[in-house]
Design a protein that fits this description.
By secondary structure, the chain is of the alpha+beta class. It is built from 8 helices and 17 strands. It has a 6-stranded mixed sheet, sandwiched between helices.
Length: 312
């Protein structure tokens, strides 16, 4: 039985969601499937595509179409030399729309081709209700996402060590550029380690955040939220108070009869912080896949988790 979802009633965000990073478990949501503009939080997908596909040490010449781009900028100049790494930090710490254009053109040859890659990659991640038209989040009626999709993309990105390192950096000194991270969440919220702000008149204030406390990582998305920092902090506080993460690795030994057994791979499960958790190890009568038993975990609401166990 899946965890019951807390349907929050906050009026300050048009849409919001919170997920546990490793399992994707939804901890809290409100209007999470509404299709909305997301401003510069778009750059989360841009960054992870570039990190996965490009050599971050590669030096490029700034393309003409990345000079004088509308909106926030690191003021790239015509013919300027810069590496991909510095562009990524400029993209995520300063929200440089010129960085987004330069990276997109380097990756795909044009903004339009890169948008096609964005949509393809989003679908692979499981973000099926989104459509991307540019790498920066500049207004376009056909450029939209949902809080749920954006959170899936953010969780995917935060599982990449290079991405996580970039968005958690407060001050960056690169080969060509230096930046201060303008994401106030890193200072204001306990355990915060990223990830991206966004604002346009149409989208309002948008914030995707990540925080880690007591060994659990939570990612939140708030779209069109005037008090995005305070509201995101309140979501974190409530979720960390209500839930905890149980971790089972392959070194943990269970006993089925007189047989020692273990999981095939590491597993995580989100449970309520309060209430009783029950564990059962049930022998498998008809062995398949060499499994000797089954681990079942439940709470007062029923079954939460079941996995096969294998002899050591």
């Amino acid at each position: 039985m899946p965890l019951s979802v807390n349907k929050t009633a906050y009026a300050s965000a048009q849409a919001e969601i919170a997920m546990e990073l490793t399992t994707g478990t939804v901890l809290s949501e409100n209007n999470a499937d509404a299709k909305l503009p997301m401003a510069s939080t778009t750059k989360i997908l841009t960054a992870i595509i570039v990190i996965e596909d490009c050599n971050l040490d590669e030096e490029i010449t700034v393309p003409d179409k990345a000079v004088g781009v509308e909106g926030s900028s690191i003021y790239l100049k015509h013919g300027e030399k810069i590496n991909i790494c510095d562009l990524l930090y400029g993209l995520m710490l300063r929200s440089g729309n010129d960085c987004a254009a330069a990276l997109a053109i380097h990756h795909s040859g044009s903004i339009e081709k890169f948008a096609e890659v964005m949509n393809e990659r989003a679908r692979k991640i499981g973000a099926l209700s989104s459509n991307f038209k540019n790498p920066s989040g500049l207004p376009d009626d056909e450029h939209y996402t949902t809080a749920r999709d954006l959170c899936k993309i953010a969780c995917y990105a935060m599982n990449n060590p290079e991405f996580k390192k970039i968005v958690s950096t407060a001050n960056y000194n690169g080969k060509y550029k230096s930046f201060i991270n303008k994401n106030k969440m890193l200072k204001f919220c306990e355990g915060a380690n990223g990830i991206k702000t966004g604002y346009t008149v149409k989208a309002g204030r948008c914030l995707v955040s990540s925080a880690e406390r007591c060994g659990m990582d939570i990612v939140t998305v708030v779209l069109n939220c005037p008090d995005m920092y305070a509201h995101s902090c309140s979501i974190f506080d409530k979720c960390f108070k209500t839930y905890k993460l149980l971790k089972f690795d392959t070194n943990k030994v269970f006993i089925s009869g007189n047989i020692l057994c273990k999981l095939k791979k590491n597993e995580n499960i989100v449970v309520k912080s309060y209430g009783e958790i029950n564990y059962e190890v049930i022998p498998v009568r008809e062995q398949t896949d060499n499994a000797v038993a089954e681990l079942k975990i439940s709470d007062e609401n029923g079954l939460l988790f079941t996995r096969k166990l294998y002899s050591i």
